[in-house]
Every structure is written in C-alpha cells, then in structure tokens.
Amino acid sequence: MPTVEITDRAEMTAKLEQALVLDPRQTAIVTVDMHRGHLDMDLATMPTTPEDARRVISAARDVLDFARSQGIPIIHVVLTYRMLPGLGSESMTQPFWRAVAEIKEEENRLTPGRKSTVTHHNIQGSRGTEIIPELFSPSDLVIDNKKRLDCFYGTDLDMLLENVGAKNICLMGINTNTCVLNTSFTAFNKNYRVVVLSECVASMYGEDLHVLGLQNIARCLGWVLDTPTFKRKIEEGRRLNHP
Question: What is the pTM (predicted TM-score) of this model?
Fold first, then answer.
C-alpha cells in the first residue's frame, strides 16, 4: 500500500474544541470492552500490547474517578458470547471472524505478533468478560450483551442514555478503530455529542489503526480530548450552566 500523509486539520479541531461545551448533567461516560479479555495480559484472548493496557487502565481510572466525583453516570459495555450446540461461539456466525479463526497460526491473526483467539474470546461466564477491577465501582451501570462492534447494536444503550439524561457521550476503551469508532458513528447518527478520550483508547490491531480511528472521529464525528481538556470542559460546563 502507498504511504499516505495525514492531512493537517489542527486549525479546524482547535476551533471546534474552543466551541465545545460539556454540561456534566447531560454527559455520560461509556466504556467499551474495558475487560480482562483485552487488558489483562494473564487472561486476554485478544490482547492489546502490555504498554497500551497499562496506559489505558491508568488514564481511564483517573477519568472515571473524576467523573464519579462530578456525578457523571458511567456505563460499561462488555462483549459476551454464548456457546451454541453445533456452532461453538456465536461469534462464528460472522463470516470474516470465522475465516480469521481458520488461520492456523495463533500469532498474526487480529493481534500482530501476539497470540489471540476468536473462537474462545469472551465466552459467557469466563474471566475475560470481567471489567478491569480498578475501573469498576458498584455505582456504575453495566450492559453485558454486546455481540458486535457497535455498542448500540442489539443492546439497550440508547434507552439507558436517555434514562440518565445524556446528550453527550464520552467514549473510552478498546478498540479505537472498531468498537469505539463504530459506536461513535451510531452516536453521531442519533444526534449525541460525541467525545472520545484519547489517552483512554487503544487498538489491538496496531498503532496505525489507532491513529486512523482518532483521526476519523476528530475530523468527521466529534471531539477527541486528552484528560486535562476533558476535565476542564466539564468544570467549565458546570459553572456555565449551573452557577
């Protein structure tokens, strides 16, 4: 493939950031597959790199602790698959995933240079489906029936966001270029204000696709913010809307 230079849209994104207002009373954080199946190197069946796992967990813990202190709802969305007679994992109804599963080498499937499995990823009841403990509080909300790349698809995420009064959806998790990006598209199409927390996302597929995901979101769908900017926007939104 030819090498493509990333188009510089820094001026546009800077203007959009200046205009962004985040009222914490209309904001929810949605964590995407922040479970052991991606982020616990001892258990992961589709692992990120260890470095990405450490970065994401540390940054996410900081953001989630801040969000709880601000009364912002936190919704964890977790992918789980049933095992079905004669099929195995219900993920195997997807033709691409089935083709990936038929590759003999355990390395260089979806995770470059690392072992992974499609057929045994996040099976219902397995430890891989557990949310990373440092990121979970009993006050958080959980959706655990995600089956595909979009957190809205086949779940009650939209209704839950409506029930908590959210118009701003702030995303973190795995993978930047698949589940986070897909969820961003649907949130955009449903007229949510989309924010992705840049230090709290990563891609097991490689750094290039992580960058692609962030670029696509920032230039087409919503706002990509680092942690200090997110916190500042929430604090400014509280002062502006609720003096």
Answer: 0.95
